[in-house]
Design goal:
The complex is a heterotrimer of chains A (324), B (290) and C (240). Chain A is 75% helix and 1% strand. Chain A has 324 residues and is mainly alpha-helical. Chain A has one domain: ABC transporter involved in vitamin B12 uptake, BtuC. In chain A, strands 1-2 form a two-stranded antiparallel sheet. In chain A, helix 3 (68-86) crosses helix 4 (90-112), helix 4 packs antiparallel against helix 9 (209-228) and helix 12 (246-259) crosses helix 13. The longest helix of chain A is centred in the first third of the chain and has 26 residues, at 36-61. Chain A is globular. Chain A starts with 9 loop residues before the first helix and ends in an 8-residue tail after the last helix. With 290 residues, chain B is mainly α. Chain B has a single domain, classed as ABC transporter involved in vitamin B12 uptake, BtuC (Orthogonal Bundle). In chain B, 75% of the residues lie in helices and 3% in strands. In chain B, strands 1-2 form a two-stranded antiparallel sheet. In chain B, strand 1 (134-137) and strand 2 form a beta hairpin. The longest helix of chain B is centred in the N-terminal third of the chain and has 31 residues, at 4-34. Chain B is globular and about 60 Å long. By secondary structure, chain C is α/β, with parallel strands linked by helices. Chain C folds into two domains: 1-74 and 160-170 and 193-240, P-loop containing nucleotide triphosphate hydrolases (Rossmann fold), CATH 3.40.50.300; 83-158, no CATH class. Chain C is built from nine helices and ten strands. At the A-B interface, helix 5, helix 12 and helix 14 of A face helix 3, helix 4, helix 9 and helix 11 of B.
């Protein structure tokens, strides 16, 4: 089913990625290229995390989450809370945001997952708006007007602070992808697929469907929260409309769909591709047009290439699933 | 802060708003409740209707309600075409759960962004003789900008209800998701019936959109807020129940009006979604479900 | 209740709104038995299996399996206790291969380790006669093979009781015999089987004992000969 490159262990993947990064950082430092690369790269990597997190529910199990922006923003605001309380360091913000969103995911799942799948989808949409309303009315984190987060200008040994955040997000992306890949190859992951294909049959074949679904919402929520944790530091000014921006929800769906939703590689490819295009497009053409392109590409892919780029590649390489 | 006058005003506004909400949700009751098509882009079509009313009004001074009625057939055709695409791409392959939803999500996003590109993010309003007046008795007022849309909404509601319950095609639309086979035996093509139903569903969005922009100013992204209202009503109604939709619409309208009067308008969006979440968690079969 | 009852259904009642699908039905299945459950359309057969396998919850009465009360147990827990079922309309895991379909059941219901799945799965596929399709996509199977996959996946949960829900509907008469042979073979291997079927020829040949449901009530019980000659049964099937 997979070509050899896909069989690389997460360890080697991490190693390779870190090596590439190290080389890149050195080169950029040497040539003094401006920090825009890191600024843009951070966003792309953040989408790798979000798309991967979404795919655990959506791709593996077939449960659509429209509320990615809600989870992301709650992660970001969890950090703001810690910051306002005692100026917590990022190292504390990230796990805290993750845990808050994991609990949120668990609660969401518990309330809606016993219903038909589509109700889960609608409920996630509803949840994002309820949360946004709560944040707008919560003065402690800035309410509708937003809040400033002061960050240091530099962080040794990275030079610029954005460079540091880029590195943090890279680690988070590697972590998220490793978790997704590990799930995918585990018994739990095979249970997810059974649920996606036929939930009743899965249950009758001995799969504890409710428990697996709750695992998925919890893990997925955790990863989305983690992706949002450094957001306030990255933008240094956070407001509800930017943290809850629908673009996060759209991208989190579009990227796995474009890359291919059935493997961990799909969201990575989708995020790197679509994320990079968006970063380039925001600079070169208008940002609205860039959003329009995302929407059109999403619709185009779900109609024309339901298996995404990974599916196209597989077909193209003539890979059949007979080597298992 | 609290006074009887305020309460009565809030209740009247709530009933007027609720009738309008019911009309807005009617399309979704048909598509989601009866045809089993989870069209989360429905509110986006409503906003599209609002902008068409705005365009005709600002360019040629056309009455928004008249525009809405004129565009019903256009929207009907758009809906019928969209269903064809949906059927061929997803429903026939049994793939509506994941990709069908993503499809409508993409459509919603495209409509929203396209409107932003053409009209920007400013709020838009329409002009008509019945906007800006109100009938007053003591401290109690009934604004005509709410009352006229309410009447039109109820008229549209009645028309669709009669069509669905009195005609063969209407009854077929109600039955198509439950019993395809029986329909085929009666010589009706389920795909054509669903196409008709989805066309009607989107058709109502043309008029509902015109009513929306009469009631409040509209900008492209408010559509997303209405997702909460329309799904809350459709679920609370008991999926597919047209009378249930009216009752649920009134409940939501009154609840929202009370909250916004006594707690402040910034809480209003949470009412619909709160009701929706509560309904999903505790009574997913809705008020009028079995 | 006799000592060797494997499954004991006591006064089970199920309503859908105002409609009573099962009304105080008793039935008892003994270990090793070939048990037939028949009745006209809408008589409550499928509802009964759903209550036994746990996809529906019964409102009245109780169901006891191997001395364990099943009420409140989820379907997957019942599967792990030893109750397996096939579905009338096949529900394969379409994105998996035939062998992987069995793998889900083996891994989750019996805790078979990943390394043993291949061997144990192939053994079951041999018995069912689906071995050469092991690596085919489950979604691409023919009707008869889908039915076989249903049975194979149910067998992969290592059941003591197998409920076969209309596994033969719509098949040709040689295919019906094919499935019958498989079920006989499984029964000889010690598995108790409940067969729900419309094809009378098959039920009568297969079952040692039959219960007849009509409009949610049990109207007859006995061996095939007794059932065939029961006037009550004739009335249910042919009308007054």
């Amino acid at each position: 089913m997979k070509w050899p490159a896909l069989k690389l262990s997460p360890f080697w993947l991490c190693a390779a990625a870190i090596a590439v990064l190290g080389i890149a950082v050195t080169i950029f430092d040497l040539f003094n290229i401006n920090t825009f690369i890191f600024f843009a790269g951070y966003v792309v990597l953040q989408y790798v995390v979000l798309a991967t997190a979404w795919n655990i529910m959506g791709g593996y199990m077939g449960y659509v989450n429209f509320g990615t922006a809600g989870f992301f923003a709650v992660g970001a605001y969890a950090s703001v809370v810690l910051y306002n309380l005692f100026q917590a360091p990022l190292a504390l913000m990230i796990p805290f945001a993750g845990v808050v969103c994991a609990l949120l995911g668990l609660a969401m799942g518990y309330l809606t997952l016993r219903l038909r799948g589509v109700f889960f989808a609608i409920a996630t949409l509803a949840m994002a708006i309820v949360l946004e309303t709560l944040i707008i009315n919560w003065e402690f984190v800035g309410g509708a007007t937003g809040a400033y987060i002061l960050r240091s200008r530099e962080q040794a040994p990275f030079g610029d602070y954005i460079e540091f955040l880029f590195f943090v997000m890279l680690l988070l992306a590697i972590f998220a992808v490793s978790v997704a890949r590990w799930l995918e190859l585990s018994r739990t992951g095979r249970g997810f697929i059974a649920i996606r294909d036929d939930e009743i049959a899965a249950e009758c074949a001995g799969v504890p469907t409710l428990r697996l679904k709750l695992i998925a919402t919890t893990v997925s929520g955790f990863l989305m929260g983690v992706a949002g944790a450094p957001f306030a530091l990255y933008v240094s000014f956070i407001e509800p409309s930017s943290a809850f921006n629908l673009i996060y929800a759209v991208n989190a769906i579009a990227m796995p769909m474009i890359g291919g939703a059935t493997t961990w590689l799909g969201p990575v490819i989708g995020a790197l591709l679509l994320g990079t295009v968006q970063q380039v497009a925001t600079v070169t053409i208008s940002s609205e047009l860039n959003l329009l392109i995302v929407g059109i590409v999403l619709v185009f892919f779900v109609i024309v290439a339901p298996e995404g780029i990974v599916g196209l590649l597989k077909k193209w390489l003539g890979g059949r699933r007979d080597d298992r | 802060m609290f006074s009887v006058e305020l309460l009565v005003n809030a209740l009247i506004a709530g009933v007027l708003l609720g009738g309008f909400y019911a009309a807005v949700s009617l399309g979704l009751t048909v598509s989601f409740g009866q045809l089993n098509i989870v069209n989360i882009a429905h509110p986006a079509f409503i906003i599209l209707g609002s902008y068409i009313a705005y365009m005709c009004n600002s360019l040629w001074g056309l009455d928004p309600i008249l525009t809405g009625i004129i565009f019903i057939p256009v929207f009907f055709l758009i809906g019928a075409g969209a269903y064809r695409l949906y059927y061929e791409s997803f429903e026939r392959k049994d793939d509506e759960a994941l990709r069908g939803l993503a499809f409508f999500f993409g459509v919603m996003f495209i409509i929203e962004v396209a409107l932003i590109m053409v009209y920007g993010v400013d709020f838009r309003t329409v002009q008509a003789s019945y906007i800006g007046q109100s009938w007053k008795a003591g401290g109690i007022g009934v604004p005509t900008r709410m009352f006229v849309p309410f009447c039109v909404a109820i008229a549209m509601f009645t028309a669709v209800y009669l069509y669905m319950s009195r005609t063969f095609n209407g009854r077929a639309i109600k039955a198509v998701a439950q019993d395809r086979l029986a329909l085929q035996l009666m010589g009706a093509d389920p795909v054509k019936i669903k196409q008709l139903g989805f066309g009607i569903s989107i058709g109502t969005a043309a008029l509902a959109g015109a009513l929306l922009i009469i009631i409040i100013p509209v900008e492209p992204s408010v559509g997303r807020l209405y997702i909460g209202q329309v799904f809350a009503i459709a679920v609370l109604a008991g999926l597919g129940s047209i009378p249930g939709t009216l009752v649920a619409g009134l409940i939501l309208g009154i609840a929202e009006s009370l909250v916004s009067t006594f707690f402040g308008p910034s809480w209003a969006p949470a009412v619909a979604f709160g009701i929706l979440l509560a309904a999903l968690a505790f009574r997913p079969q809705g008020l009028f479900g079995r | 209740m006799t000592a060797d009852a494997l499954l004991d259904v006591r006064a089970v009642t199920k309503r859908f709104g105002g409609f009573t699908a099962l009304d105080q039905v008793d039935m008892e299945v003994r270990a090793g038995e070939r048990f037939g459950l028949i009745g006209p359309n809408g008589s409550g057969k499928t509802t009964m299996i759903n209550c036994i396998s746990g996809t529906l919850a019964n409102e009245g009465g109780e169901i006891v399996f191997k001395g364990v009360k099943l009420d409140g147990k989820k379907p997957h827990q019942r599967t792990r206790l030893g109750i397996a079922r096939s579905f009338q309309i096949p529900k394969p895991f379409r994105s998996l291969t035939v062998l992987e379909n069995l793998g889900i059941a083996l891994e989750f219901a019996t805790g078979t380790s990943r390394s043993e799945v291949q061997e144990r799965g192939m053994a079951i596929l041999e018995t069912i006669g689906l071995a050469e399709r092991a690596r085919a996509n489950a979604g691409s199977l023919t009707q008869i093979d889908m039915r076989k996959l249903e049975l194979a996946r149910a067998m992969a949960t290592q059941p003591e009781l197998l409920i076969s829900d209309e596994a033969m509907a719509g098949l040709s008469s040689t295919e019906v015999d094919d499935i019958l042979d498989i079920l006989f073979k499984l029964n000889e291997g010690g598995i108790t089987i409940i067969m729900i079927e419309h094809i009378m020829r098959a039920v009568m040949r297969f079952s040692t004992r039959i219960v007849v449901l009509d409009a949610g009530r049990k109207i007859a019980e006995g061996n095939p000969d007794e059932i065939v000659n029961d006037p009550e049964v004739e009335r249910a099937y042919l009308g007054e």
